[in-house]
Amino acid sequence: MRFWPRSLSGRIVLLTLLALVVSQLVSFAIWTHERDRFLERVIVGNMSESVASAIRTIDFVPMADRGQALAAMSTDDLRYRLARGPGRGFTNEDNDNRDQARGFEHEFSRRVGVDVERVRVAIGPGLAHGPSRRAGDALRVAVQLDDGAWLRARQRLFDPTRRWARFSLITLVVSGLLMAGIVIVTSRRMTRPLRDLARAAERFGRGEAVAPLPETGAEEIRRSVAAFNRMRERLARFVAERTRMVAALAHDLRTPITALRLRLEFLPDDDNTRAMAATLDDMANMSEASLTFMREEAANEATRNVDLSALIDALCEDYRASGATVTFEPETRIALVCRPVAIRRALRNIIDNALAYGDEARIVLADGDQAITVDIVDAGPGIDEADMKRVFDPFVRLESSRSRDTGGTGLGLSIARSVIQGHGGEIVLINREKGGLRVQIRLPRDGLA
């Protein structure tokens, strides 16, 4: 499969060219077979007529002048001579040609008007079939005259296969180039809806708003595009309904939480009431965080080309202005098509975690051929391997493995992962050998383009 094209257009072109080559080979085989049959009939017919004419002619020529008369009737392709015997090469011991030569002897005897015992035919390489065929004598015929002498005739045939092969090769190349050009243009037009569908599916999978695609092209392509449009509409409706439902639940929780707080005001101030008040505060924070998250998801930020290095540097400058230990050394400008507010929110959540659990955050930005890598490194205790995946679940806080004094609702990493995956990237957690946690973000090089 090394030379098998990856694109549909390339495969169509290759299959078309293969079909052209196969058809040319089949045509050549058929032409060769039919040409051999035709040459046999033409050569045998013309040669028998020519030999009969030569016999009738020399009957009127004196014996002494027959040699000159036959030389005058000879051509470059057909030569005559008189001899005392038929000559060599008429045994026809070759099994492939013996039966055919005997058939020619009977036909010559009928056409010339002599007994078959007085006719000898030998098939030369010019008329032989198979791989041994080459240019040369097609037939050699010897006919015994009434006076006992033998009239020998030799028909030469130059095989036109080589010339035909050259012209056929030229025709094949020209036809292949013309067909390749036509197929490339038509296949690209035919597969354009598929390319548009692939780009739209990629953008839609990354969370970007996608308009309905025009249903054009072949019947199968139109059906695929129509199915994608229906799927896009259903998923968009489902996500919108889910977002509204969760936002409504988070909003409606405010009322009972407020009512419970008011009731706590009338209870004596002890450990139980303070614990209940802390629990209500956590519920209120989780409700507010959920509402904020849903509003930002529903905002559907547009994508644009931004300088990722400048975005990260500006974010780190805000932290440094507040006295946080955040280091970042931008090297070169790295452009990325993304939703900058969402990327900034994801990075802020990760940096907040690094500062809360590791007291510092060091950011390293690297540009690769296929992806852009952002590493956020802290000096904290790290995370147990068993909790690496669970930490991305909403409202999960690993208090037992990290600091017990940290706040938050447990939505930070969940929001960050949603944003990164929405850009077609991935986020992984790696414990450092010397201590600390590395959060590695990989974003595709083409962003959302």
Strand content: 5-15%
The H-and-E topology, N to C, reads as HHEHEEEHHHHEHEEHEEHEE
**Average pLDDT figure:** 78
Query: How many strands, which pairing sense, and closed or not: the largest β-sheet?
Result: 5 strands, mixed
Number of strands: 11
Helical segment tally? 10
Low-confidence stretches: 130-134, 400-405
Structural class: alpha+beta
Distance between the termini: 30 Å
Strand order of the largest sheet: 6-8-9-11-10
Could you explain the architecture of this structure?
This protein is of the alpha+beta class and 449 residues long. The protein is 54% helix and 15% strand. It is built from ten helices and eleven strands.
Question: Keywords, please?
Answer:
single chain, 449 residues, five-stranded mixed beta sheet, rod-shaped, alpha+beta
Task: Itemize the secondary structure elements and their pairings.
Layout: H1 8-58, H2 66-73, E1 78-83, H3 95-112, E2 119-123, E3 136-144, E4 150-157, H4 161-205, H5 219-252, H6 254-265, H7 271-299, E5 304-307, H8 308-321, E6 326-328, E7 335-338, H9 340-358, E8 361-367, E9 371-377, H10 412-422, E10 426-431, E11 437-444
Parallel strand pairs: 6-8
Antiparallel strand pairs: 1-4, 2-3, 3-4, 5-7, 8-9, 9-11, 10-11
